[in-house]
Amino acid sequence: MNDRKCRFCNAELTQSCVNLGMTPLSNSYLHKDALNKKENYYPLHAYVCGECFLVQLEKFESAEHIFSEYAYFSSYSDSWLEHARHYVDDITSKYPITSNSLVVEIASNDGYLLQYFKEKNIPVLGVEPAANVAKVAQEKGIPTYVDFFGRKTAAELALKDKKADLLIGNNVLAHVPDLHDFVGGMTLALKANGIITMEFPYLLRLMSENQFDTIYHEHFSYFSLVTVMKIFASKKLTVFDVQELPTHGGSIRIYAQHEDFGKHPSSRRVDDLLKKEEAFGMYELSTYTAFAEKVKATKRAILEFFTKAKNEGKTIVGYGAPAKGNTLLNYCGVGVDFIDYTVDRSPHKQGLFLPGTHIPIYDPNKITETKPDYVFILPWNLKDEISKQMKHIYDWGGRFVVPIPEVEVF
């Protein structure tokens, strides 16, 4: 264990946060001809650094292996698109982002966000490592640089006069194995008076609401505000504002600027959230140990629901094929013995099988055909959107189930 080092401060990692056993990569969906072939499983064990309190996984696969061909397309969630549109309206009303500016998004996916800047005639550039996803954005007319972001890519953009007035990263920071290269790249890619906004799942909410399924191999790190501020400060970037968001079960959006050139004063919200973290116990290792016990209790409750329902002869299907669902199902040992199939709106996932559990993925119309007793919502953070889309299950007496923060049937 002594050879494990923190990816930020290089301290030895000796303190376990939560151990979710051995699982396949959460986005390694299977074709039918691969079902009888060997799958690779990796330890899904999160540690917390006793020095900087960064929660992190060991790196077992390279980012290139995980992200160069990706199954997640952002535009298949209506609520996420609405979140993106609202952000664009908000940021352009608060800051002078105009047709003379350049907005650069790191991990721009299929253009789900930049399209709304484009509608306002604001120049945009996406940086996206997954060529299959970037192609969709390019077909929308969104310029997209196909590469992983870091110091090298940032330097190339700077040479092409592509420094950003607004540099955005939504749900990418957790996916980065080399934080020094990534955040150092942001320093290089940002104009002197530019602004950075980054959104990522919030560690405090993950722990307080038992969201263990947001831990998976594609997420190398899990962040508190205090830790992110240390990481950014190490690259001469200052966090001057923060917002708590409901997305992904609870996220934060930080606003940052150059330490030496930035002109925006620090918001009171930064100090308020730091105090909230301290009160929660984010700087005490015992808090992380307690979280592990809560996760075990949640697993038992989930299995109790499935066992009781199946003993009563009920049929259960899933809704969604998200990465978080694959963590939950593999950790809890839930496969086709409990869930007949799952459905997903993304045609890129339909016809495939979930990693590890081999649960088949169909079009959502399958639910109307089979009329199950329960629809188990795997992307529980989208339960309102999904339950509205699928409210017709009530016509035959069907009910929805969400597993997090606790099992709820409605």
From TrEMBL:
It comes from the Bacteria. The keyword Methyltransferase applies. The keyword Lipid biosynthesis does not apply. InterPro entries: Methyltransf_Zn-bd_dom_put, Methyltransf_Zn-bd_dom_put_sf, MeTrfase_14, SAM-dependent_MTases_sf. Residues 246-405 form the C-methyltransferase domain. GO terms for molecular function: methyltransferase activity. Pfam families: Methyltransf_13 (PF08421), Methyltransf_14 (PF08484), Methyltransf_23 (PF13489). SUPFAM superfamilies: S-adenosyl-L-methionine-dependent methyltransferases (SSF53335). Keywords: Methyltransferase, Transferase. GO terms for biological process: methylation. Residues 6-67 form the Methyltransferase putative zinc binding domain. This is Methyltransferase domain-containing protein. It comes from Paenibacillus plantarum.
